[in-house]
Amino acid sequence: MTVLEIKTAVREIDGCKADSIPHEVLTSSQPLLLRGLVSDWPLVTAAKNSHTEAADYLLSFDSGKPLTAMVGDASIKGHIFYNSELSGFNFDYQRLHLAEVLEQLATHRDSSAPPTFYVGSTNVDHWLPGFRQHNDLNLTDHKPIASVWIGNRSRISAHYDFPTNIACCAAGRRRFTLFPPDQLKNLYVGPIDVTPAGQPISLVDFNDPDYRRFPKFRQALESAQVVELEPGDAILIPSMWWHHVEALEPLNVLVNYWWRDTPTFLGGPLNVLQHGILGLRDLPPEQREVWKQLFDYYVFNPDPEHVAHIPEQARGVLNKIDDVTAKKIRNMLAQKLGH
After folding, report:
1. SS3 label, residue 99
2. Which SMART domains does the record cross-reference, listed alphabetically (predicted)?
3. pLDDT at residue number 338
4. What is the pLDDT of residue 1?
5. How many CB atoms lie within 10 A of CB 59?
6. What is the pLDDT of residues 163-186, one digit of tens each?
7. Got the DSSP string for 219-267?
8. What residues does each domain of the chain span?
9. Comparing C-alpha atoms, which of 40, 56, 67 is closest to residue 127?
10. Which stretches of the chain score pLDDT less than 70?
């Protein structure tokens, strides 16, 4: 195992409380460590007492509905990743009840080489009803999606998320290694259509980086930031920041809150990227350049002057997009993509 030398720690912000997070924190363009943000949560208190108490507390909210777990044998050493040919993954998806997951974690608690159990991105309100009445952040204005992540020791390869994210360490410890969005070219990202959990991931193994195969990863490390969370701590991860996440204990529970700064009816930008690959990438270079100019004109640097000559009622999608217009665009695209 290689310990990466990262000189920059995530900036720490003092005094934030779960019920009053300052606006300048929520809108930060840099990662922020919010030490002790959720230290008053009952789950955190239980976790500080023992893994057993934390597990029992979670079970007190169990809906009884099976969840999806990623399960791998001891050989993967907690690394949720592809198989050697990148034709599939090094784990299996299994439908398990929460009690079964927690029982497996307890069974292998003292093992030096346990199988991996990883329950990722599971909606709190659906699977743990009532949990947020006692363990929550006051983010009502942002309408976040709250998810829980449960497992033993694991490593999640560097990836980005479109929404802004506050990740709260409720049990165990988590280490985050983060990179700004401009490090895409140095992180050697894998496929964008076949991924372990929906988002493209770096192919670099942070525990054993192959600098011959991935030489530019050294440059990425120059921009990296690192932080380790204890129970009660949280981290704000801005939209599109790459983050590699390690769970460091036999029982780890993370609760995170995702929100976006635009309405959900506008859809996901990754879908647009995939459509762009379909329709634009293989055009002749001179045609791609023309389309690059069109995207810049209408999408990346729109200006009211660009459409001022068109009567407002005739601008169609060139006006500000609302829910009704978004539905029309999606229907139009569905029809066109169907041919």
Report:
1. helix
2. JmjC
3. 76
4. 64
5. 13
6. 999 999 999 999 999 999 999 999
7. HHHHT-EEEEEPTT-EEEE-TT-EEEEEE-SSSEEEEEEEE-SS-GGG-
8. 8-261, 265-337
9. 67
10. 1-3, 339
